[in-house]
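# step 3/5: fold
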Amino acid sequence: MSLETEIVEKKKEISTDGYPMSIGELISLYKEEELDIHPEFQRFFRWSTLQKTKLIESILLGIPIPSVFVSQREDGVWDVVDGLQRLSTIFEFIGILKDEQKEILPPSILVETEYLPSLEGKKWDDPEDPVNSFDHSLRLTFKREKIDVKIVKKESDSSIKFELFQRLNTLGSKLSDQEVRNCLLVMLNKPFYEWLKALADNSSFLNTLFLTDKAIDEQYNMELALRFFIFKKYDSNEIKYSKELGDYLTEKMLLLCQDKHFNLESEADEFIRTFEILDFVMSEQAFKRYNDSKDRFEGKFLLSAFEIIAVGLGRNIQQYRSMSLNENLKSNVEAKVKRVWESSEYQSRSGSGIRANSRIPVIVPLGDKIFKNED
């Protein structure tokens, strides 16, 4: 198929429209719940008060701001695909922004900027502080300013919304890959997102990872939980043919959250048992390098160690379910973890510069083999 033909065929899958809309119109859509900005996303988008003020300043000065992208759902509601922080900032300033519990958040107060220092302390409309509020004329002018809105119509291929969201929020974005995936999950299957998040916050799981606050803030614990389920379920050889591991994780996540045969209750039970054992046996040393000469685990968390140890135990967890958390179990699991570090096959595939698509197809089956209890 030629490039021209591919372009024509793909264009048929995407139906779009676009036009400028006044801020007043967008406010009305939001109030009528015809515009969904997903309040649960707000935890992923972290703008400072100054950044928020600069957006308001840009609108007041007539400085063009980027288009807002929305996707039309079957019920006609617009899902915001890109522009959530911009719209949230506007709605928060005006005093209509709601949180996940549908409670209205306190209106934001502006700070001074280089071009408009008099914005310091300004509010949208506070009857008790009229001096620091926008007057009626300024509020009308603000609401009449327009924002370009790009619409992906409901006739488009169902996966376009997620592809568009991922592209717009990955390229040049401060969101981590997992934060983007989390947003996709919320749009596609919120209960699955909540299920995964609860497991990622499990105390035994976090104890074994011993991550920094920054890593957890960027949802790295959720990415590791997702990796656990994906590598545990799918054939690791598939990764060989994936150009980027990040794309592979996103692709499998979208399949997993729509898989009706994926039993959340039993999978959660196996996850918790896996990390309960690792926490009891190793705690924060579970995924650190083993120093044979000093007979101790040391250093920082290693992703390759997580992939071989956590997934290896997870794939065989049924053999460990009836075992009590005692010294026998501890010596059994610790010996297997040390076997990982004694393996030349693991050592050759876990060093720096080894790509994930050549590392994972080797070390995941190796972990499966090491943690299998022989009869």
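# step 4/5: annotate
The longest strand covers residues 16-22.
# step 5/5: archive (pending)
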